[in-house]
Structures are given as C-alpha cells and as structure tokens.
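## tool: complex_structure
## caller: assistant
## args:
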Amino acid sequence: MSAMRTLLHMPFDPSSRFIRLVLAEKGVPARLAETRPHDPDSDLTRFNPAMTLPVLIDEPPTGGEIAISPAGAIAEYIEETQGGGALMPATSAGRAETRRLIAWFESKFDSEVNALIVRRRIDGQLKTHRWNDPEPIGKMQQAMIWHLDYISYLLERRQWLAGDRLTVADLAAAAHLSVSDYFGFVPWPDFRDLRDWYARMKSRASMRPILADRLDGVTAAAHYSNPDF
Amino acid sequence: MSAMRTLLHMPFDPSSRFIRLVLAEKGVPARLAETRPHDPDSDLTRFNPAMTLPVLIDEPPTGGEIAISPAGAIAEYIEETQGGGALMPATSAGRAETRRLIAWFESKFDSEVNALIVRRRIDGQLKTHRWNDPEPIGKMQQAMIWHLDYISYLLERRQWLAGDRLTVADLAAAAHLSVSDYFGFVPWPDFRDLRDWYARMKSRASMRPILADRLDGVTAAAHYSNPDF
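## result:
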C-alpha cells in the first residue's frame, strides 16, 4: 500500500489554495497538512529548502518519495500524472498562455496586491510575523484596480482566462482573488465580466472547501462564500 | 514565408540569457531584439503587459502571432515545439525537479543575489534606473554562499543539476551565475564541484555568445570567459 499523497499548505496562502483547487478539479485525493514555515517544529526545510508553500509529497511509479514545489510545478505534475478532465490547453500556444497567466498571479499579483496587506494581516493573525509600519492601503487599491482592469480585458475577449475553456490559469486567479475577497478588497460592482467569471468559479464544487475556510479573529466579507453576489 | 522568430532581451538580463542558451542548445534560430523596458520607444507593453524580459514572439502553426513570457514558459514552449536533443527529463518526477530548479534561479537566486547588486549596477550603467542607497555587499555575499552551498549539495549527488543529464535547469543556473561572475562575485575556489560543473557549461558552444557580451564601462572578471579557471 502506498503512503497517502500529502500537500503541505496553509488555508489562507493563495498558492496553497491554487493547488487545492487543482487537486479537487482533477479528483485527486491528498492529505492536507497545515504547515507554518517559521514554526521551529515544521520540517518544511527537508521537503523544500526554499521554505515556501505549497509542497506536494508523492510516491511516483518510478519509486522513491518526491517533494514538488512551487505551485506551478505541482500543477504541471498533477496534470501530467493524473487522468480526469484536462486543465491545460491542447496546443503549445495555449499552454504558453496558461503558463504566462499562472506566473502572473503567482508572482505579479501576489507581490503587487496580496503581499501588501492581505499576507501581512494573515501573518499578524497567525503570529508568524509582526508588521509595524502602516498598511499601504492606497497603493494596494491602485494595484488591485490595475490588475482587475487587465483580467477584465482578457475576459472581454475570452470565456475563460486563457481561452475558451477552464484551465489552471482560472484556478490560480480564483485562488489569489479569493484571499483578497475574504478581506473585502475586491470592488466587484465596477467589474461585471470579472464578477460573472468569479460567480461561475464560486459555483464549482472545487471552490467549496476554500469558501468554507475561516480565519480566527477576522470576519469574512458578507458575500465571500455566496455565488450570487 | 513566415516572419522570423524574435526574442526581446537585454544582454545582461539573467532570464534573457537563460532563453538565449535554450535557443542555442536546441539549434533554434531567433532574431535578438535588445529592448529596454523603461525606454519610452519600447513597445514591450504590447507584447508583455508585465513589462518583464525576455519575451519570445513566434508564429505557431495554428496561426497568428503569439508573445510568450516569462522565461519558464518560453523554455517549455521551445522544448515542446522544437526537435533536437531533449532539455527536459523523460519522467514527470524529473520534470518536476527541473521546474523546481528553474523557479529557484528565476525567482529565489535572482531576488536574493542578483537583484541586490548586479542588477543595480547594470541599471546604473544603462541609465535605466538610479540607485542612491549603499550596495548591500555583505548581505549579497552571504546569500551567494548559501546558494552556492545548496547547488554544491545537489552536484555532490548528481552529474547535472536536475539529474544525470543536462536540462534547462543547468541553463537557468548558468545564466544567472554568469551575470554575477562577470562582476567577479562568485568565489569559485571554495566550491570545486560547482566550478567543475561551470567549466563544463562554459565549454559548450551555447555559452560562447554570452561569454562574449561586454558591458560598457565595466571590465569583466579576468576568468569570465575562460573555461579553464
């Protein structure tokens, strides 16, 4: 009997949410192991010396145990090794566009939007790090609107982010937006195409566990888990 | 007749060098178009709204013109669409390890080592940005040694970075190290396995154009282009 596939994650880490969505969409079972990178009892460094989440621990048919990170590499690995509906486009051009958008959310949106306030508040709540300087609220809001404008530009031309069907790019985008949305930072009424797309995402079964997550001491925005908003 | 494949790049941008190496190893011709992101005459934003380099512009058999970024997505696209020797491992586990290492150099090494001093000096030389605070030399050297220790740890166990043959992970590593090495920031004598690996990399034909690059006003380290060092 092979050991259970395990995902080292944190419930409010956007990149971890991205992979929970990929696993759920593919119907791949995995044990979720909540892991705080700075906890001295964590053995994260053994599985990922870069100390980032998420990490997927798996036992491939070729033998041994492997630990995969970061999220982009995990998504490709699950797509390559698991059956079920394809989450990557069939053409190389489509896959290139999907990978561009994964990097967009994992790197650009994360550093320009979520890192400014949302990640700090989560750190503060979990007591993993204490931030003393004031929250750059105006800078975050400005970056958020720039990003929502860009996603809307794509959604005016395409039914899904990378083309005419759902791909891992939609899952990456929904994961990153969902964390900002918990704090009420996404001005949905100003972005109708985007809101329609997110309503479609929220009504998927894969989103349910994520919309059920609650952070101690922080109340979710009223519409957070409601697909009609 | 199809238009020439074009790479928007800068000669001393580590991520651009990574893709020049991938193109050269695969024997794929491409026009190199030097592009400065902050130049008002640059039309980079049309091809990549994230405003990062490199960008590969191609005309796929499915029609139209596509613009691919960032470097990781370009490497996958070239590997998928071009013949020649494989630069990705044959197993999903091997590919996952290769992608982990690409992200390591493109994100972690770049932000923790090259961004601190090397990228600033290049910006200053090209007058694309002016930095006024002092160079964090100690911090950069400490991070460099941590990274060289980690690469050495891998090379004690493997002939190449991701396993028993050359992959795109080696090209990403060589690209990022080559820029630091131009400035003389890599303490090779303390890292023999690493130096042996880099000597093998430097003797490859794909490295020759990169080792011939010169930055106006900055003399290359004496051993920069010498495979025996």
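## assistant note: DSSP finds nine helices and four strands in chain B. Chain B touches chain A at residues 49-50, 60, 62, 64, 66, 68-70, 72-74, 76-77, 80-81, 91-93, 95-97, 99-100, 103-104, 107-108, 150 (CB under 8 Å). Handing back to user.
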